[in-house]
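hey so u asked for the seq, here:
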Amino acid sequence: MESWKIITYNVAVYMFLFEIRPLETYLTAYLTGPDGNVSLSEVANSMESIRSYSALTATVIMLAVSEYFYKPAIIAYTVCSFIAYILMSGSPSLIHLRVGVAGIGATSNAYILGFSYLYSQISDRKQYQKATSIISVSLQLGIFCGSVLSQLIVSMTGGIYSILPYFNASAMFLAVICACLFPTKKKHSFQMENVLNEKTRLLENGLKNKMEIHEKKIVIMKSIKYNTAVENTFKGLLFDFKASYSNTVVLKRSIWYIISMGSHFQIITNMNVLYTYIVNNPGNHDVLLNGYAEATISLCGAVGAYLIGKVQLDWIYYGDAVIAICSSIMGILMMSCYYHDHLFLIYLSYIVYGIVSQMVFVSNFSEIAKRLKNQCYSLVYGVNLFGSLLISTFMTIFFVQMNFLDISIPGRVPLLVFQFLFIGGLDVSLGIGFLFLSYLKMTKPR
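ran it, structure tokens below
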């Protein structure tokens, strides 16, 4: 078997295990039930805020992780997730629940480390799209298995959620074992040649002096000689940051990822609350089928991720058009949730959203990775993730903490569902922007 396939399937098994988290499907129901005994209002406000803020903090820590620490970082994040679910099991106190929710939020984006580790181990960049597709499929299949498991448990126990945290903890334990078997990445350091070889237009424009090339090198060499290791590392990160984002494709796809993923986090955070809210509406006789719905969403998402991995397309020429179409569809589907009063229609919209979003996310990840240096994966993906979490956090602050606009739509559902209208509009706006970029590219000769 080819080396890239070996490491890809190794990471795929880890991703599969890490995503088997049946508790997530019924997290709101668990917290508001007899085990958690937390009000729906506190879940939507306090608990989800803790989750968002802890994810943001964990991303800052992730940014400080170099290539050499990928494996230890993946193991550490998985162990933290294991501890979080142990704290939420049994008859947890409110403090245990809050710490557990914080742990879930902090480790929810560990997949970024997984993808970064994957790309750093594969030398043939032509395989990035296929490798990304395989990992995304395994990730979605893990969610599928977790969702089916949760629905089976809830159905057989008559709506008892107490056992779900134990299944999550067991899956995390197996994921830790799998991560320990990862090959260790060779140590990378920002050597002097890394600094001297940067020749991007962005860096050259930032040089204000007019020295000759060899004089510049002498100055840089002297600077490196007298700097500390921390200073050299920081300068290396800064150079890599500028070099990476000076690539137009990386920059615009990163902007799309930051905005779209920020919206996606809000959807994931609030969708579970929306399910419970709709069911609790007076006169509504729908039954929560979150497990089956999430299983279908993840399975269809896996199909979308698999199909996009097989697509042979000139992504440089047609990439903006694909993003424009997918973003517009995603936005329309989320906006439609504002008008739905029954779970079936919301489930259906979310299923189609899952297919389209996985297709565009796989495409976006692989196309960015193809244009990065080997030591820049965690840096760029970490910065992008940090930006998306910032946007998600700002939405949480404005819509939840500050009750921005002070909206309660007469005759419709309250501010929570209005967020879906806002998020959908944001995705549609992204689609329009990339449609314009696609038009400009296609009007030029190839």
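The radius of gyration is 23 Å. Residues 314 and 320 are 11 Å apart (CA to CA).
lmk if thats what u needed
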